[in-house]
Design a protein that fits this description.
Elements (H helix, E strand, L loop, with lengths): L13 E6 L8 H14 L3 E6 L5 H14 L6 E4 L5 H7 L2 E4 L8 H8 L4 E4 L4 H4 L6 E4 L4 H13 L1 H19 L1 H16 L5
Parallel strand pairs: 1-2, 1-4, 2-3, 4-5, 5-6
Length: 198
């Protein structure tokens, strides 16, 4: 499972992963700064950054350069979408989404469906999906130290990570399946179209 992404086959390894387009607003540079802090104390953590760049000659190059500058080349693995995205999620233990600007990320919904605990930022619609301490960990946007602390918490407390992942999956079934979301939209339209009682 790990080998296809260049991650060593070692049962002790924990993988922190982000699935998102490679664009500054998704916060990959913040994740790299957090990774640099984490590798000092967490000897078995690796990072999987999965996505395509909209401008591969600029931001993607900056990400690879920053990875090298931080000495993280052996611990940070970049991949495009290699096939079924489920293969990527199967390799991830902790999902991270350090967005600086956002709407309602599909990637978080996908991770919730698979029971992945998430560390995400308090941006736009993210806190409506991820409740701090209940279905994941919420941190300040743009704060690499806070992001590292949130990730470290789940790396060291595997029972908490498992509990948050199960709760996230339950929330997915309650709110974010296609049928549930379609019904929510229908109800919204019905409420808007209903004549006022006044």
């Amino acid at each position: 499972m790990h080998a296809q992404f260049g991650i060593p086959s070692d049962s002790r390894i924990r993988v922190v992963g982000q699935v998102a387009s490679l664009t500054p607003r998704k916060g990959q540079l913040v994740l790299l700064d957090a990774a640099e802090q984490l590798v000092r104390t967490e000897p078995h953590v690796h990072f999987l950054i999965c996505g395509y760049a909209r401008d591969p000659l600029a931001y993607e190059r900056a990400l690879h350069a920053r990875t090298a500058d931080l000495g993280l080349t052996s611990r940070v693995h970049f991949v495009g979408y290699p096939g079924p995205i489920g293969d990527v999620y199967n390799a991830i233990d902790i999902q991270v989404h350090p967005s600086i600007e956002e709407s309602l990320p599909q990637a978080i919904i996908e991770g919730m469906a698979l029971g992945k605990p998430a560390v995400a930022t308090a941006v736009a619609g993210i806190p409506t999906m991820v409740s701090d301490g209940a279905t994941g960990v919420i941190v300040r946007p743009g704060d690499a130290q806070a992001l590292a602390a949130g990730i470290r918490r789940l790396l060291r407390d595997t029972s908490l990570a498992a509990r948050l992942g199960l709760a996230a999956q339950q929330r997915y079934w309650e709110r974010y399946t296609d049928a549930r979301m379609a019904r929510s939209l229908e109800k919204l339209f019905e409420d808007v179209a209903r004549p006022s009682a006044a």
